[in-house]
Amino acid sequence: MAGVRAGGDDLTAAAIRRLSGLKPGKPAAIVTSDLSVNEFVLVHEVGFRPVGMVLGSAIHHVGIQLRRWSADQELTTLSRAMYLARDAAMSRMQAEASALGAHGVVGVRLTVEPRAFGEDVVEFLAVGTAVKADNPPPGGGQWRNAEGKPFTSDLSGQDFWTLVRAGYAPLGMVMGTCVYHVAHRKAGAALSTLGRNAEIGEYTRALYEARELAMARMQAEAAQLGAEGVVGVHLDAYGHRWGGHTTEFFSTGTAVRPLRPGHRIGRPALVLDLDG
Q1: Are the C-beta atoms of residues 184 and 70 closer than 8 Å to each other?
Q2: How far is CA 208 from the centre of its chain?
Q3: Are 255 and 153 in contact (CB under 8 A)?
Q4: Beta pairing, strands 121-133 & 151-152
Q5: Cα 140 to Cα 258: distance, rounded to the nearest angstrom
Q6: Which CATH number is 30-258 given?
Q7: What does each of the 276 residues of the chain score in pLDDT, given as a tens digit?
Q8: C-alpha distances in Å from residue 275, one per residue of 159, 162, 232, 234, 236
Q9: Rounded to 5 degrees, what are φ and ψ at 28?
């Protein structure tokens, strides 16, 4: 992507022009946001001002990886490709937020869409609303992460309000992915359950393993950030174009930390099930 460096990632010339018009002091600055009216108001209530809608995009050709017809196996090359493509989109969104002087991005949506440019060409798109805090966090420190970059969060505006009011701050949106090939059943095994209600144990074990790998990687990211927990976790499955026996499991959530020393997850102040 041709352009200037911002936060370690390229911004296109078109993005630079759009973001320049959003900076404070510009007479024609129009703040854009994908927050709902309720979310917009609630984000303001906890001391954050939306400063602009930010996005990051990465279009990748997702290739193939040889697999054994009769073996359960993670397709590590594809797992890595899917992760790095999403990470590129997230980093570019963060770079746009940095260019606006934002402290974080809330309401992040991370999507994958096939494109008609060719077989197995997909766009990875990250979109959210950049916000700037009116005051530093209670107890000192900063709202940005340890690298000095804006935090990211896929929490809604309502959940973000609940989190901050409960005494916690987002550290970053964390994710883990696993592309897994489930072995085809042998003819004898398939015939043994023909016409019967029966658990197919080998399929259960394979999919369980794949989900666990995705979840463990998300948790490892949170640990690297120094998080105390992950809230708003989603675990999704995507078939993409790999066929019925290959699935991507993708886990996301928002890593959080207490705003004050001694405030710990598990105490009544934090509601982990933010949708409940």
Answers
A1: yes
A2: 21
A3: no
A4: unpaired
A5: 12
A6: 3.30.110.70
A7: 333 333 345 666 666 666 665 655 555 567 889 999 999 999 999 999 999 999 999 988 776 655 555 567 888 888 998 899 999 999 999 999 999 999 999 999 999 887 756 567 888 999 999 999 999 988 778 899 888 899 999 999 999 999 999 999 999 999 999 998 887 654 455 445 555 665 566 778 888 899 999 999 999 999 999 899 999 999 998 876 666 678 889 999 999 999 877 666 655 444 445 554
A8: 8, 10, 8, 12, 17
A9: -110, 20
What residues does 203 pair with on adjacent strands?
none
Nearest to 154 by CA among 120, 200, 107: 107
Alpha-carbon distance of 93 to 1, in angstroms, equals 13
